[in-house]
Structure formats: structure tokens, C-alpha cells
Design brief:
The complex is a heterodimer.
Chain A (H helix, E strand, L loop, with lengths): L4 E3 L2 E4 L5 E6 L6 E7 L6 E7 L2 E5 L7 E4 L6 E5 L8 E8 L6 E2 L3 E5 L1
Parallel strand pairs in A: 2-11
Antiparallel strand pairs in A: 1-3, 3-8, 4-5, 4-9, 5-6, 7-8, 9-10, 9-11
Chain B lengths: L3 E3 L2 E5 L4 E6 L6 E7 L6 E7 L4 E3 L3 E6 L4 E6 L8 E8 L7 E2 L3 E6 L1
Parallel strand pairs in B: 2-11
Antiparallel strand pairs in B: 1-3, 3-8, 4-5, 4-9, 5-6, 7-8, 9-10, 9-11
Classes of the chains: A mainly beta, B mainly beta.
Chain lengths: 112, 110
């Protein structure tokens, strides 16, 4: 069991650029979740997949955010036209069906 | 709606006990507790399910009052390694997203 992995761990970008993050879940887990965490706050739900199907997307998520899980394994989260307010830690978690969610180390995004 | 955690922060000496509370305004299916150290991922501690089932590990216990939609995490004989931020994540039905509280910062001093 290698755990949830995320890449990159850190990303610095200029405002207006697009960024893409990758998450590799625990191998037998069919559910994958994306959360965003800002300093001093708990993780905030963004979206989740069961296999390749995106089952829910937060209403707080603007159209600049998109996520995919094309083969039901790894997932990508893309942010287009980044803004300074997008600076945060982006966390991925996976679970087997709806059981315990295990988190990855996160990708810290800084938008200059 | 975000669950409310209390206290916001607590400082303990090694060996002391602490209780962290989590309260929701919604009917819950489960409450999940995580600990996060600075710059690291949240680490799962315990899950409490509606109906009283409790799953977890380590020397940490918790309770879930379904009538009040409140959960409490009990840390006994605290160790330095217990330091971190504790989050409760609430779930309104099985397999749904977790809605996290703002966290409780715990610092254990020697």
C-alpha cells in the first residue's frame, strides 16, 4: 500500500496562467476526492469521482476549475487563468467505496 | 454548513488530557477525525458512525451523540507527538463528501 500521491508538491505560477495537478489514489480505491485548504482552515470539498464518473462538484467551484479521471485511476485537476485567490493547498483523497478517506500530501499552489 | 469545533486551540503538558468537540446543525451519518501536522497531509484517526459503531486505532477515543449531532475526541495522557491541528469531518450519508470544521490546534509541551 503506497498511499495517495500527488504531483507536483509545489507550484508557483503567475496570475493568468493555467496549472494542472495530478493525483494517484491507493490502487484498489474507486473513489477519489479533491479538496482545497487555505491557511487556518479545514479542507474544503471541490469534487469527487466514483471510478471515472464525476458525481459531485462544489457550487463554489468556478468554471475555471475542471477535473478528470479518464480511466478511473489517476485524476487531474486543472485551473485555468489562475487568480491570486486560488493560492492554497490542493488535497486529494481516496477511499474504497465510501469508507475512510485517505489523503495525499497535497500540492501547494502559489499564484503571484 | 461547516461544523463548529471547540476549543480553537489548547496547550497541554505531556501526560495531560484534552477533549475536542465538534458540533453540526445537520443530521449526520458519520464523523471523521483527522490530525494534521504543519505542511503535511491530514492523517485519519477515527470514524464514528450513526448507530454507535466506532472505528479507529491508536490510543485515542471518541464519542458521537446522535441526538445532539455532536462528537468529542478524547486524548488521554498526551504525548509530544499529539501536537497538531485536529479536524472533524462530517458526512450526511455514506460515501458523501466530508465537510470539515476549522480545526483545533493542539500543542503539547514537555
Amino acid at each position: 500500500d503506497t498511499g495517495v500521491s500527488q504531483d507536483p508538491r509545489h507550484k508557483i505560477t503567475k496570475r493568468g496562467q493555467n496549472v494542472t495537478f495530478r493525483c494517484d489514489p491507493i490502487s484498489e480505491h474507486n473513489r477519489l476526492y479533491w479538496y482545497r485548504q487555505t491557511l487556518g482552515q479545514g479542507p474544503e470539498f471541490l469534487t469527487y469521482f466514483q471510478n471515472e464518473a464525476q458525481l459531485e462538484k462544489s457550487r463554489l467551484l468556478s468554471d475555471r476549475f475542471s477535473a478528470e479521471r479518464p480511466k478511473g485511476s489517476f485524476s487531474t485537476l486543472e485551473i485555468q487563468r489562475t487568480e491570486q485567490g486560488d493560492s492554497a493547498m490542493y488535497l486529494c483523497a481516496s477511499s474504497f467505496r465510501g469508507d475512510t478517506q485517505y489523503f495525499g500530501p497535497g500540492t501547494r499552489l502559489t499564484v503571484l | 454548513q461547516q461544523p463548529v469545533q471547540s476549543p480553537q486551540a489548547v496547550i497541554l503538558r505531556e501526560g495531560e488530557d484534552a477533549v475536542i468537540n465538534c458540533s453540526s446543525s445537520k443530521a449526520l451519518y458519520s464523523v471523521h477525525w483527522y490530525r494534521q501536522k504543519h505542511g503535511e497531509a491530514p492523517v485519519f484517526l477515527m470514524i464514528l458512525l450513526k448507530g454507535g459503531e466506532q472505528k479507529g486505532h491508536d490510543k485515542i477515543s471518541a464519542s458521537f451523540n446522535e441526538k445532539k449531532q455532536q462528537s468529542s475526541l478524547y486524548l488521554t495522557a498526551s504525548q509530544l507527538s499529539y501536537s497538531g491541528t485536529y479536524f472533524c469531518g462530517t458526512e450526511i450519508r455514506y460515501g458523501n463528501k466530508l465537510v470539515f470544521g476549522a480545526g483545533t490546534i493542539l500543542r503539547v509541551k514537555s
